[in-house]
Amino acid sequence: MTDSTLRIHLVRHGETLFNVRHQLQGWCDSPLTPRGLRQVAALGEFFRGIPLVAAFSSDLTRTRATTAGALAGHPHLTAEWMPALREWNFGGWEGQPNPSLWTPLFEASGYVYGNRGHWDELTVEGPDAVIDQVAASDPSGMAEDAAAVNARMREAVAAIEAVAGAVTSSGTDGDILVVAHGAVLQSLVPLLVPGGRIAPGYPNCGVTTVTVSGGVAVLSEVDASCALLDEPGPELVLPGALAG
């Protein structure tokens, strides 16, 4: 019997008001913009011909709306809404302008906020150190640390792997949808693909796929076809992956 192939499609939610206004958006929420709604509609067409067997989504409003659009061609599927897939919790920084947090954090390490290369340097060992710096800098003390985020990621991965195991044990191929957020996907990917990293600037409704075959997981490049980046619209302050 040949090995089955499993594909886990990781999607960032559609563009939101806070994305456009460059405000920190973790557990707080803001509505999808008109372009965000068009991105979600494009996402529905993207997944229409893909034989999805399961869907997982953060339970925040922006990811729920994105997931509903992505599943437009799959009325038989009901997504599992997971608090574990929520964005990093920025605590007292929630809703604040992006630079108010990121500029001093970058400068403390000798880097410049807005430089893609510097984000790569800042997270060369993974996102955990950055998460802990955010938590340490939060005057309210409500921001999550890396241990809390990683505990959630392990919970999410366990749920995804339970479905994945059922698919692969049947000897058939399968596709799973996971809708989450730009920063938390950076925490999730290394648990699915050892050594895997998502580049900064992950676009709204960008899709990256983890393909598992023969026990080996491979991460694809980001497919930005649903991001509608050719449409006129405000440029997101880099690193865009941290805009929620």
What is this entry, summarized?
It comes from Subtercola boreus. 38% of the residues lie in helices and 15% in strands. It has a six-stranded mixed β-sheet, sandwiched between helices.
What does this structure look like?
The protein has 244 residues and is of the alpha/beta class. It has one domain (5-90, 146-242): Phosphoglycerate mutase-like (Rossmann fold), CATH 3.40.50.1240. It is built from eight helices and six strands. A six-stranded mixed β-sheet has the order 3-2-4-1-5-6, sandwiched between helices. A hairpin with a 2-residue loop joins strand 5 and strand 6 (216-219). Helix 2 (34-48) crosses helix 3 (61-70). InterPro entries: His_Pase_superF_clade-1, His_PPase_superfam, PG/BPGM_mutase_AS, PGM_Phosphatase. Keywords: Glycolysis, Isomerase. Substrate binds at residues 12-19, 62.
For the report, how would you describe the main beta sheet? 6 strands, mixed
Order of helices and strands: EHHEHEHHHHEHEE
Task: Output the CATH class name.
Answer: Alpha Beta
By secondary-structure content and strand pairing, the structural class works out as: alpha/beta
Number of domains: 1
Helix content: 25-40%
What percentage of amino acids are in beta strands? 5-15%
How many helices does DSSP assign? 8
Features:
single chain, 244 residues, alpha/beta, Rossmann fold, six-stranded mixed sheet, His_PPase_superfam
